[in-house]
Amino acid sequence: MKAVDLVLLSILLFAAPCANAWKVPCWDPRVTEASAVVAEQDGVWCGHIQGMCASSNALYFTYHNQIVKTDWSGRLLKRTKALRHTGDICIWNGRLYTALCHDKDSPVRGRIRVYGEELDFIAETSLPKDADGITCIGGVLYVGLGPAGTPAEPYRGNWFCRYDATTLKPLCGPFRVDHGCDCCSGVQNLCTDGENVYMNVYCPDETADTPNFIVFDSDMNVKGRYVFGYGQGMDVVPGGKDGAVRFVYCTTLNWISSATKRELPVYALVQFAELKGGCIRDISRHCIFDNPLPR
User: Fold this and answer.
1) Which of these, 117, 147, 116, lies nearest to 132 by C-alpha position?
2) Is the dihedral of CA 204, 209, 210, 215 positive or negative?
3) What is the pLDDT of residues 99-148, one digit of tens each?
4) Phi and psi angles of residue 28, each rounded to the nearest 5 degrees, phi first
5) If you average pLDDT over residues 20-29, what whole number do you get?
6) CATH code, 36
7) How many domains would you assign to the chain?
8) In terms of DSSP bridges, do strands 213-216 and 197-202 run parallel, antiparallel, or are they unpaired?
9) Dihedral of the CA atoms 124, 129, 132, 135 (nearest 10)?
10) Please, which residues have CB within 8 angstroms of residue 150's CB and are 6 or more apart in sequence?
11) Angle CA(188)–CA(268)–CA(283) in degrees, nearest 5?
């Protein structure tokens, strides 16, 4: 076994006893077991993690062409094939909602696809633009509909729309939101605490201090801009105290280009962060959670 595998296995074994639904005394960083995440499926490249969401007893990860369900210790519970390119995912009222953008030659640019918590397909609707981030507040889906500019160049702003989570009918026409900083490739992830919407995007220069974590109110007015890593999926978790909002977020480990020989297994690394007092920071150790969010 390679050194990197031993390190990852030790993290997983240490974290597993702590992962017990929402109410745990200590949430440490953890990785999924190797069988949970695969680099290829049926000969098709799966890519890196696109999005994630959390429930009281499970984590859901989306890849380009699959959805994975694990428990909080990282053990695989279920995996299903998905249409390419499946992006972000959110959970509301016992249903999972995924945002898709298709290849440029597809007559359908985007979709919302709905699944049950056991990854059984329920429904879908087509969208007029590429779909990327997705989250839900009180039965209203907030969906990113791609960049407002040219994806090859830095731009300010993204297209959004709101949909009824039950009927999947649009509640308004696409509208543009200028969040005040350069980004690229559209929205990556959206999540919510039921009051605000939190967005993660890619920046044109990952070495620059360009805000990539934006906070909006429910009307998509900017409330704050922050620099915080480049997670590939995130969700709000309960237990923020003294005005803090806490998040679970993930990154793909050992993910490399499909054209490059792979020698290491792929994992999802799960960590935790807190937004408080105008600052966001990693708090992956010694975290106390209470007051579960309604899901």
Assistant:
1) 147
2) positive
3) 998 766 667 789 999 999 999 999 999 998 889 999 999 999 999 998 88
4) -95, 165
5) 52
6) 2.115.10
7) 1
8) antiparallel
9) -60
10) none
11) 80
Residue range 269-295, pLDDT digits in tens = 999 999 998 899 888 864 444 444 443
Of 249, 168, 180, whose CA–CA distance to 212 is shortest? 180
DSSP 8-state assignment for residue 32? -
pTM of the entire structure? 0.86
Domain coverage including residue 95: 3-282
Segment 230-236 mean pLDDT: 87
Output the CA–CA distances (angstroms, integers) from residue 65 to 43, 45, 82, 95, 110, in the order listed: 11, 8, 5, 19, 14
CA-nearest of 243, 295, 231 to 269 is 231
Confirm whether 216 is domain-assigned: yes
By residue count, the chain amounts to 295
> Is 294 a member of any domain?
no
Measure the CA–CA gap between 111 and 130, rounded to whole angstroms: 8
Whether the per-residue pLDDT at 170 is higher than 80: the answer is yes
Question: How much is the mean pLDDT over the chain?
Answer: 82
Rounded Cα distance, 294 and 222, in Å: 25
Helices (H) and strands (E) in the chain, counts: 1, 22
Structure tokens at 225: 């801009």
